[in-house]
Amino acid sequence: MQEPSIGLLASAAGLAGVIWLIMQLVRTLMDAASFDRFAPVIAAGVGIILALAYAFVASSPGDGTFDGQAILQAILVGLFGGWMSQNVNTMVRRAAG
Fold this sequence. Notes:
This protein is mainly alpha-helical. The chain is 76% helix and 0% strand. The chain has helices at residues 12-29, 32-58, 68-96.
């Protein structure tokens, strides 16, 4: 992985690592059965929020770069990043146990 930067939130692969770290914190707040059931949905939601935040912050005011296309792209990147983070979670769990 490259050096951490805010630009990682622009790609699903970079976002997956950040979401995985956040989900490890969420894991401590939930019981195991609930986490296993709802983790992909929570991860996708966190991914969408982070990707939308990056798209908003990366756009310059008044230049029109935060339009419908940017919003849709951020939603898709967030969804895929969230789902990818759960695959990382499964791989780490299998390797550790």
